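Hi V.,

You were right to ask for the full record rather than a summary. Here it is.
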Amino acid sequence: MAEASKYFYKNKMMTAKQLSSLPRCQVSLSHLINNLNKGIPAEQAILKKVIKKLPFNGGLYSVFELSKFPECVVERPCLNSRIYSGWEVEKAMTTPKNIRLSHKNNSTPEPRRVFQAPRKKPATISKKRALEIMAVPMKPTSTYSYWFKERMRKGELL
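Predicted structure:
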């Protein structure tokens, strides 16, 4: 019978079965074995959410740790979405937020083009002015809304 593989966990060597029997283990034995075979350390392999470590400057760091580096110019959610969208770690950290990589080749940053026309403030009148306008008699043949629109068009109401 082949000897079971042992993994280092909290200064002890343990088999996958022993690791799965720990009260802290949140995954099934088969999931745990898959995680361990992928090279994930036993401390993370027993947890449901495995924190992916990414290479940067010769070390392995999580997205949270990368977002704390002084080279990083974006916040953690932006960095996370960029990395999992396929950006290189260094470009994801050093490219400012409003620049996207072109889809043709992932090397040329393309500025985001956003144009919004300035919004006009709606015309408002004071309550006092509205009461003065209502006191003016209308033509007997026109409706109030027609009369009001005509006055607004002529600029008499403001």
